[in-house]
Amino acid sequence: MTTAHEAARTGSARGAVWAVRRALAPAALELEGETRRLADETDGLREQVAELEQRLRSAEERLERVDHLERQVSELRDGLHEARRLNLRIAELTDLVTEVVLPLHDREIDPAVLRALRPDTL
Question: Quick check: 22 and 1 in contact, CB under 8 A?
């Protein structure tokens, strides 16, 4: 069949244009469908990118919370170390008061106990 026969068969100018396009550029018809498919695929990819961006923001927020918690744990460890140091100091001062300020009438102060204390306690 020729292009004229196809145009007569469709009975419209559109049919004639389609027949000419088919004869001269058959790939153009295939590309039209491909263009539509690619546009749909692009829309789907855009949706996926938007979802991934949202997940990334959520992960960044969780990472910020983790960093904040790590800083708090570090501060708590420092505070715990300081509390232990102060408790040791209180224990040493308690020993000093027991040995020096409140000696029993019969008991003599043992100089070895005083030497065992840290200098900043005295």
Answer: no
State how far the Cα of 2 lies from the Cα of 121, in Å rounded to an integer.
113
Residue length of the chain: 122
Cα–Cα dist 64/66, whole Å = 5
Work out the number of other CB atoms within 10 angstroms of the CB of residue 16: 16
* Per-residue model confidence as pLDDT tens for the chain (122 residues): 455 555 455 457 777 777 776 666 666 667 777 888 899 999 999 999 999 999 999 999 999 999 999 999 999 999 999 999 999 999 988 888 877 766 555 556 666 776 777 776 65
Q: Look at the block and give the residue holding tokens 């069949």.
A: 1
Give the pTM.
0.45
Per the CB < 8 A criterion, the answer to whether 30 and 22 are in contact is no
